[in-house]
C-alpha cells in the first residue's frame, strides 16, 4: 500500500470518527437565528465535542441574549460563557 493510499485511509477514518461530528455542530450553529458575530463566537466550541444538551442550551442562550441586549453587551456575555465552556 502506497503512502497516498495510507494517507487517504487515515484521513477518512479521522473524518468518520471526529470531523463529521464537528461539521454537524457547525451546520447547526449556522442555522440559528442569531447575528453572524454570535455564530462566530459560539463556533469556537467546534473544537469541543458537545452533547445535544449543550447545543440546546447554547442555542437558547445565544438567541435570548441577542434579543434582550444590545450587540456590544450581548457579544461580551456570549464570549464570556463560551470562554468558560472552553476551559472546562
List key phrases describing it:
elongated; mainly alpha; 88 residues; 81% helix; 4 helices
Compact overview of the structure:
By secondary structure, the protein is mainly alpha-helical. The chain is built from four helices and no strands.
Question: What is the topology?
Answer:
Blueprint: H1 3-31, H2 36-43, H3 52-68, H4 71-87
Describe this structure in words.
The protein has helices spanning 3-31, 36-43, 52-68, 71-87. By secondary structure, it is an all-alpha fold. The chain has one domain (3-87). The chain is elongated. The termini are far apart.
Mean pLDDT: 78
Instruction: Name the shape in a single word.
Output: elongated
How is the main sheet built? none
Report the β-strand fraction as a percent range: under 5%
Q: Tell me roughly what share of residues is in helical segments.
A: over 70%
Rg, Cα atoms, Å: 16 Å
Tally of helical segments: 4
Structural category: mainly alpha
Order of helices and strands: HHHH
Count structural domains: 1
Task: Please tally the β strands and state the result.
Answer: 0
Low-confidence spans: pLDDT under 50, at least 5 residues?
A: none
Span of the ends, CA to CA = 41 Å
